[in-house]
Amino acid sequence: MTRRVVVTGIGVVAPGAATTEAFWNNCMAGVAPVSPIPAHWNSFAAFSSTIWAPLPELDYAAHDISRVERMQLDPSSLLALIAARQALHNANISPTLVNEKKNALALNGVDPNRCAVLCGTGIGGLTSLIFNQSNHIVSPLAGSLAEMEARLVADTDRGALLPFIKNARSGIRMPQRFNPFIVSMTMPNAVSANIGIKYSLCGPNTTVCCACAAGTVAIGHAFRTIRANLADFALCGGAEYLGDEFGGIFRGFDTAHTLVNAGTDPATANRPFDARRSGFLFAEGGAAMLTVEELSHALSRGATPIAEITGFAETFDGYNIMIMDPSARHMRRMLGTLLDSARTSFSEIDYVNAHGTGTTLNDDIEARVIGDCFGNKPLVNSTKSLIGHTIGAGGAIEAAVTALSISRKATHACKNLDDPIADLNFVRRSGEFQISKALTQSFAFGGHNAGLVLEEFYNRA
Amino acid sequence: MELLDADAVIMDRMTKIIREVLKPGSEPLTLDKKFKEDLGADSLDVVSLLMALEDEFKTQISDEEAATFTTVGAVFSYIKGRTGLTAS
């Protein structure tokens, strides 16, 4: 008999929202956090894109994250921990403190050996490495400049040079210390490992690293792990932090001409599936974690399923590291396999949470494939139209939106969509909709295609 | 040992950090206490303590200085000897 897998808890941290409810309320109200990029980034390069979607101020202590954890974990792991804590709370699981020094907890009512952790990320702890490398690289130069300044102070003949040296020194941005934990901060598997350590979970623990599809694939692999009876419970999702001190990661995407042009109205520049779209809105970061469980495990501890995961599929383009295969044949194959996996058909899908980045080529191809496969029946929206692109967290945040859209019988609009590029049933106003069967899909640099089918939960037992 | 008022301020801030990082329970943090032998710290705990002290006192502790931090008293002497570190 096939083991059924249900979502019982959701935790989200996203641009503009520190909690799941704040995030959902923003989505439904069409609140999209868009700001100019940090001003000091402009001293490093002249960027084409000048806006991003920043995270809110986060109160780590309120999420039981200690000073030591803040100093030793990359922000991607901290975001994952905040999302995981919310998901567990939402799933009615109250952790117990088991090691005060480590600030480590254990989950009541679940066997830790049967708990998996699968978290996706695009770049892991790269921002911590970048900042600490600045200490490694710049320290000798900073020392020389300090010495030069000291000599110029005493040198009346060449004192005119002093302001230039002072200016150069003031522009140096580096941590005072090269963090001794930088290896464990940088390694991509840290996002999953830190969740496993925090909650003393000892089942399969893997980080999925496939760029913008990572969150979707992580949830899909958790689904498969539980279905295959390798675990009964999983914390799964995605986490990403992209706001390095110097805007270097932003520059990478900007140089590749993938980012949105702020234009004359930055607030409406991010417009997936619109004829005037120009690229994606770079998000500072985000995370979404779901608790997913085998159905009888969930019901036996009194949990209320939010939605059921019934299918997952992934394919690979084998085409180009940064460009989607225009033929989309492996995207279509992914969708076909996905619907077979969920034992359903295109005509039964009520809602598609699209990848919807807002880049010219991707939206064209995705809209064409949705139209070809689904016609214009299912609702289609892009969560990235609200919060921008959180890369490895994106698929997980969108899976959270999909589950919430099913359970709350409502979903958000596709923001800034004035002139749709295809005759699809785009959500033009947020509100109530009957959504029983939904699909969320992600496509990634590298050539990854992945999707999940989520359904309204019915207890057929 | 009776501490002067200024010393007591340093001691309060320092012991707060030591308790936060090492969680030594109700163990009194007297100056003679050794981090590893008496307070159960391992080598990573000592590094964590060092980073937390740097954060709290807004200073940079060199590896050579850190190597001498084996007791509560050694840390106390270090902080006391650094001008300006007592200002919060």
Describe this structure in words.
The complex is a heterodimer of chains A (461) and B (88). In chain A, α3 (75-90) crosses α7, α4 runs antiparallel to α5 and α8 (214-227) packs across α14 (394-407). Chain A has 461 residues and is α/β, with parallel strands linked by helices. In chain A, the strands form four sheets. Chain A has an eleven-stranded mixed beta sheet with strand order 7-6-8-9-1-10-17-16-11-12-14, sandwiched between helices. In chain A, strands 2-3 form a two-stranded antiparallel sheet. A two-stranded antiparallel sheet of chain A has the order 4-5. In chain A, 34% of the residues lie in helices and 19% in strands. Chain A folds into two domains: 5-125 and 187-455, Peroxisomal Thiolase, Chain A, domain 1 (3-Layer(aba) Sandwich); 127-182. The mean pLDDT of chain A is 97. Chain B is mostly helical. Chain B has a domain at 42-88: ACP-like (Non-ribosomal Peptide Synthetase Peptidyl Carrier Protein, Chain A). Chain B contains four helices and no strands. Chain B has helices spanning 5-22, 43-57, 63-66, 72-81. In chain B, α1 (5-22) crosses α4 (72-81). The longest helix of chain B is centred in the N-terminal third of the chain and has 18 residues, at 5-22.
Main attributes of the structure:
heterodimer; A: 461 residues; alpha/beta; Peroxisomal Thiolase, Chain A, domain 1; 2 domains; 11-stranded mixed beta sheet; two-stranded antiparallel sheet; 34% helix; B: 88 residues; mainly alpha; Non-ribosomal Peptide Synthetase Peptidyl Carrier Protein, Chain A; 4 helices; 53% helix; 0% strand
